Amino acid sequence: MTALPWREIDTVLLDMDGTLLDLHFDNHFWLEHLPQRYAEHHKISRELADAELMPLFKEHAGQLNWYCTDFWSRELKLSIRDLKREVAELIALRPDADTFLDAVRAAGKRVVLITNAHRDSLSLKLERIELAGYFERMISSHDYGFAKENQQFWFALKQDLVFDPARSLFIDDSLSVLRSAARFGIAHLLAVREPDSHQGPRDTGEFAAVEDYRAILQGL
Prior knowledge:
The chain has helices at 24-42, 46-60, 69-76, 80-86, 97-106, 119-128, 151-161, 175-184; strands at residues 11-14, 110-115, 137-140, 168-171, 188-192, 209-210. By secondary structure, the chain is an alpha/beta fold. It folds into two domains: 6-22 and 91-217, HAD superfamily/HAD-like (Rossmann fold, 3-Layer(aba) Sandwich), CATH 3.40.50.1000; 25-89, no CATH class.
């Protein structure tokens, strides 16, 4: 990818899961740990658990409920908060994400976390990884009532933060979220080449991708 035009960027908006943190924790939780514990709790086979859960996950994907621990706790009759703690040792920072955050802050950029993660999930991750000090604000889409895939999230964010989309950089591992940001007018967009360290690189469609956080600091 070409060097970022840092002189044209005042605000840096960053996703959390898959962008700053390794997505392996979340993928393992939703695709392995939760189905197994659901099967045990309901005394059914793992195969039947998968058959019940996967259509539910597909139905709510990209909506605020998908990211809501309260919703899934009610829906599945399990404490999602407690189950996440059982595998919290898998929460990990992506390579050089902290180096990137340090450099961007030192350069005087406004740095804001915007995540679809529920506040419960955000709190758990902040217990494991010291991220809060890097950010002016840490915003959950649940604060606004709209997931980042929804244009209403971006209108609420702009009203809340008062920032210029034309002078903003946004990095996210979700292509649907990046496309929503592009429709809103965020000028500088980057995907993440390998959000889950256990799954290898992936196609990032029309978006240039972060492969090495140190590399995109060039020119800062």
